[in-house]
Specification:
single chain; mainly alpha; ABC transporter involved in vitamin B12 uptake, BtuC; 69% helix; globular
Length: 361
């Protein structure tokens, strides 16, 4: 039974939809949808432009490049997304991917029978690096930008030394991994299916599991989450640890796609994952993010790169167009759109009553 206090003021009336949904709930849903809508519209617009300017970008040969590399970028961006949801930035991504790829080659030693050692070593190293970042940021409260950059540089230096000592003489990944990466179940890259499965699992876990809901609550409002009894520092450590694990998964996928390791392995994944997360609608101040929209943003960035290659732009102009696209995506990012829409939908405050000389009876 619901008891109504007669002394309490009545709730402001709101529009009731056909299913009994209030206008405030509809506005909240509109804001949530507006946050993640721009990246989908931009990707569709990019497809329309490509259909006229570079129709060969839709060919099978092009997609055999786009889908695997989209998946690698998307998986790395999902790791970055976990950190951004807690108002952090992780610049150790290239270091984790680099050391992961070198461990696969060094421990694997071109032997399929050693993959069972190489892949767990890669994943374990990613978890360890992410956990270290989480301790520095979540427990010691150090600046995430500086900490992850420093950790990433240390890892890159160690990776470079390990590469010179062990990998340079035989830079090829075990054949079983590269064969798996080039296989196409149902006509689509196995790398793509793997990344898609990871994305679905992560999206469902964040939305429906207790840990996922607590994770989002801490990112959206750490103080309120702490007052509700949630362990804020533990969730920050979890964010960086999960990010490190996803970077290591990206390293495994990239090693399989590349078939060999070079000194620049992983170097292109410093800013691209951050760009994908922000373009997808996440706010750098923390809060909600979308795994599926992050995937779409990764697809748009990879497809744009492929389209520029097909058009034949010079390397310098490719960087200009790519950088301009990222800036434009950040300017019209979902977070900014949602903020503007929220101001527009916010009800106007009633004007204050004029002061009267006497008191009302």
């Amino acid at each position: 039974m619901v008891v109504v206090d007669p002394a309490s003021p009545p709730s402001p009336p709101g529009y009731q939809g056909p299913a009994g949904v209030s206008g405030r709930a509809l506005a909240a849903n509109a804001l949530l949808g507006a946050r993640f809508l721009p990246v989908w519209l931009a990707t569709a617009a990019l497809g329309v432009v490509a259909a006229f300017e570079a129709p060969s970008a839709f060919g099978n040969t092009s997609w055999s490049y786009v889908l695997p590399y989209t998946t690698v970028l998307a998986v790395a961006a999902l790791g970055q997304m976990l950190v951004v949801m807690h108002a952090g930035i992780d610049l150790s991504t290239p270091g984790v991917i680099s050391i992961g790829g070198n461990l696969i080659v060094g421990i694997g030693a071109s032997s399929d029978h050693r993959l069972w050692l190489a892949i767990p070593a890669c994943l374990g190293m990613g978890v360890l690096i992410g956990f270290a970042n989480g301790i520095f940021v979540g427990v010691l409260r150090l600046n995430p930008l500086i900490v992850t950059l420093a950790v990433g540089q240390v890892v890159l230096a160690w990776s470079s030394k390990y590469s010179r000592d062990t990998v340079t003489s035989n830079p090829y990944v075990p054949g079983a991994l590269s064969s798996w990466a080039t296989s196409k179940p149902l006509g689509v890259s196995a790398v793509f299916w793997t990344g898609l499965g990871i994305t679905i699992v992560l999206a469902l876990a964040l939305r429906y599991s207790t840990v996922g809901r607590h994770f989002q609550a801490v990112g959206a409002n750490p103080r309120a989450a702490w007052m509700a009894g949630l362990r804020v520092r533990s969730h920050v450590v979890l964010a960086y640890t999960g990010a490190g694990a996803l970077y290591a998964v990206a390293a495994v996928l990239l090693a399989g796609v590349s078939s060999s390791i070079d000194p620049t392995f992983g170097s292109s994944y410093l800013l691209a994952p951050i760009a994908a997360v922000v373009i997808a609608g996440a706010a750098l101040s923390g809060g909600l993010a979308s795994a599926t929209s992050t995937w779409v943003a990764a697809l748009a960035l990879t497809f744009l790169t492929q389209m520029l290659l097909i058009v034949g732009l010079s390397a310098a102009m490719q960087y200009v167009v790519f950088g301009g696209a990222i800036l434009a995506g950040m300017v019209v990012s979902g977070d900014r759109v949602a903020s503007l829409l929220g101001r527009w939908l916010r009800p106007a405050r009633p004007a204050p009553r004029a002061a009267t000389g006497g008191q009302e009876s």
